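Q: Protein A?
A:
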Amino acid sequence: MSSRKIFVLDGHPAKTSLSREFAERYADAARHAGHEVRITHLSELVFDEDFGQGNYENFKPLEPVLEQVMEDIEWSEHLVLTSPMWWGGLPARLKGLIDRAFVPGRAFDPRNTTLSGMPSPMLTGRSARVILTSDTPGWVMRLLYRRALIWQMRGQILGFVGFKPTRFTYFAGASYPKPGMVERWIGQVERIGAAAA
């Protein structure tokens, strides 16, 4: 396999978390396999999460840390995002980063539309991996919640701006994992990282 440029974003707002552990283990495994990796931790970024009263013509300028996130995404061939699922969605700070950074003219082009009438994506040619942790059992996520967050991430966020394919790894029971479970999860993340998948 040829070397890939990988941007890893730890999307947990806390300084210590399973998401951070997974991000770092993925990055280490990918580097060891010969891939070029950049990694950012959401907890270390200072920015205004509120898109505010901006619109497509008049939105807040990106803070330097958000500009760097976008430069890392544009540099990358593969995005890895680690995050918990809270209340069926993403943490507010992570959603705020997406709201602020994925702006028109940078992530999508509302002036040019696809055949379906949707704005043209501007981050095409990249794949993504989302590693989610939750306390929601997998069968509940599938049958009762219809994998709503996964559909949102794949279609309305990452797919909307051009990431294809987007693959998901879902770890349930994250707050109180059974003995040995975290080690098994880490092993799985390291295998995915080594494969740059």
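Q: Protein B?
A:
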Amino acid sequence: MRKVVLSLAVVTALSFVSCSSDDNNGGATPTFAKTVADINLDGVVAPATYNWTRNNATSVSYGGQTTRINMLDYITNKQGDEGLKNTARTEAQLKGMYNHTANDGFFSDATLNSSGKNIKGKTGNSDDFFSGTVEGSQIKTYFDGLITDQVANVFPNWSTNAAAGTAGQLADGSSTRYVNAKGYENDQLFAKGLIGALQVDQATNNYMSRVANDDNSTVENNYTDMEHHFDEAYGYLLNSADSNYFNKYLGKVDADTDFTGIKNEIETAFRIARQAIVDQKYDVRDQAIEVIRYQVSRVIAIRAVYYLQAGKNQLDDASGKGPAFHDLSEGLGFVYSLRFIRKSDVKETYFTKAEVDGLLNDLIGSTNGLWDLTGADLDAVSEAIAAKFDFTVAQAGS
């Protein structure tokens, strides 16, 4: 395994990113590590890539996370045509894909069909907040409800022109969007909502918390429990198989000049933490986890504001509601995902259930949902989200 020391240039660049992120607290020293530059490395040398070996074989394993991401691709029609946009699919079939059991026949892909993994069991199921709770059950039911609405109300109106109170199709340039009676696309809420309820919740609220109590001396299957659990967190967020969910939107946020460097922050912090586990430098591990949690939370919040503002800017588009409602549907999914982002210095989420429910009600709680929204409504929700963080609506919305 080749190791490289973080260069002065990289640390300086990351420090520059962190300066802009502290504007709203007067430049005060953070009470937790927000950027890689805040970490006391204590001799930990991060490798150039997320790659570790033991006995000349890899000690990194996150196959279960890859499987679930591929399952999500099938349900949301990113692979094949068997998911939420296939009108031939029944409610039982789609829910069977969401709550898969091995060899149940709902996935045409043989590898997925034979897997004992599923998405539903890991949805809203973190040790820190949702496992075994009433809310955890409600979260799973929420995604079941999106499937039910798609089959019962959107599929029968696939060829109908959508209107306030009527499900159907909307033109969006060369694309066609299929919305429910309140104007939103169930598949977008499903996909973007699971970025928070599955990927972020499992990574930052489940596996990153488990490592504190894990065995890091006994090697089985070429890794320790601590190494493996941290790798599973990595597999949910930075998996190369993920081209459509968290990893995709991390790249989009990083491409915004207001947030350039955030991808490098998260990737570097992951490598530092994993090497700190190998080196048994647990203070360094914990500081790196603080950086990951903070920056991942920002990605979700930034993208929520971005889509709400993008939708606002197209509400009066002469071509119709399709472009606006598509962006707003993505925004709704990211707003739902706000429930799962957590603070780094205390065991709390940034948004309570009541707060997220309130934001969603402000967006789609009226009789006609998105059809009733105004720019002022979208600005108010955007401001409420940005107020929790160190960026402005203008920065996130550009």
